[in-house]
Amino acid sequence: MTTKLKPAHLRKRTSIGSRRNPEAEAAVLAAARELISEKGYAGFSVDEVARRAGAGKTTIYRWYPTKADLFIAIYTTERSTFVPVPDTGNLVEELVQYTTSLWRFWASHPAGAALRGLIAEAQGTADALSALRDRFLPDRTADVRRMLTHAVARGELRPEEVDDKVALWVGFSWFKLLIGELHQEDTIHSVMMQIAGISSHPQP
Amino acid sequence: MTTKLKPAHLRKRTSIGSRRNPEAEAAVLAAARELISEKGYAGFSVDEVARRAGAGKTTIYRWYPTKADLFIAIYTTERSTFVPVPDTGNLVEELVQYTTSLWRFWASHPAGAALRGLIAEAQGTADALSALRDRFLPDRTADVRRMLTHAVARGELRPEEVDDKVALWVGFSWFKLLIGELHQEDTIHSVMMQIAGISSHPQP
Fold first, then answer.
1. Domain for residue B102, yes or no?
2. Is B109 part of the contact surface with chain A (CB cutoff 8 Å)?
3. Is residue B29 part of a domain?
4. Along the 204 residues of chain B, how does pLDDT read in single tens digits?
5. A25 and A120 inside one domain
6. Which residue from A minimizes the CA distance to B130?
7. What domain range is B26 assigned to?
8. Do the beta carbons of residue A17 and residue A55 sit within 8 Å?
9. Quick check: A170 contacting B, CB < 8 Å?
10. What is the DSSP string of chain B?
């Protein structure tokens, strides 16, 4: 490219950047974040992200081939602000604190809408399904898996129970996200007790 | 309407029916079922349902104002072929049998794709969210709620645990549906034991 040899008025107006650079990427992500939080999944389009970011659609597609990739990028950027729960040695307490913080994070950040969008996209295309299951999920369940693994080390759970409990925890949290009931925090404590395996039913 | 007074070749070709009649409704549902199972959520449109059923789009919208309504209708029609699990008096056994049958039903009937579509739509519009949560969910969790309520009557669970366990069960089953893991039936038994509250961790 030798645009610098041409006088300014003869240069083509270039898009925000075809090479991946932090400023352009930040502008695209900011526009995507704003759009998902304003219009939700149904009103989200790459066209509109491009318009708001002043970026070329082709550029965005080169960086984020699918909507699912954009949703994961929004989530991941915001997720770094989420402070993990300290290791207290009490599984139920850790799960309750973590789940409460996470639900509030989902409810108050575009990340929540982005995750809803990612799950919805995954019902439409195989690429999005694989991004959700194979790329997003393992990272995003690592915290809960660690809490459960510590409980195994303390002799409170058996190692083979960990996968089931991770699935129960994700399933329950997604369910509340997907039906719009993240405000029902009063259900968290008793459900975490059940997931932890603290039996509350009458002894025979 | 006095079309019978005109000779056949002068009559306008009418759509499949603007009044709700069983044949027309069956044709629309058959087309919708075929389309969701062939193209999935991403390829589903009312335009294409109308084309395949030879029905007017306006008629379909009058009967089913949203895609969510169509998905619920597909699910409900097929659901009537699903035989409930007999009451054996063993909660884990009942939950395992029921969940296994349901996952196979989802995997092998358009109802599964319709439910994925309904959940995805609910991430986009408030109407679909309300249809999913307030109209679809209560009916579709009645069987599991009944199994749990019978266990309460047998003194195996406390009444206040039922809602939590229903949420855990729905969450887990939706999770496996939404990430495309309905074939992993080997996870059902141990998870149902955890939901039933049969503790398998070492006694202190």
1. yes
2. no
3. yes
4. 333 444 444 444 444 445 568 888 999 999 999 999 999 999 999 999 999 999 999 999 999 999 999 999 999 999 887 777 888 999 999 999 999 999 999 999 999 999 999 999 999 999 999 999 999 999 999 999 999 999 999 999 999 999 999 999 999 999 999 999 999 999 999 999 999 987 544 444
5. no
6. A179
7. 11-64
8. yes
9. yes
10. --GGGS-GGGSPPP-S-SS--HHHHHHHHHHHHHHHHHHTGGG--HHHHHHHHT--HHHHHHH-SSHHHHHHHHHHHHHTTPPPPP--S-HHHHHHHHHHHHHHHHHHSHHHHHHHHHHHHHTT-HHHHHIIIIIIHHHHTHHHHHHHHHHHHTTSS-GGGHHHHHHHHHHHHHHHHHTT-TT-GGGHHHHHHHHHT---SPP-
CB within 8 Å of chain A, chain B residues 46-85: none
Paired tokens of B149? 């309520």
- A105 and A155 fall within a common domain: yes
CB B162 within 8 A of CB B152: yes
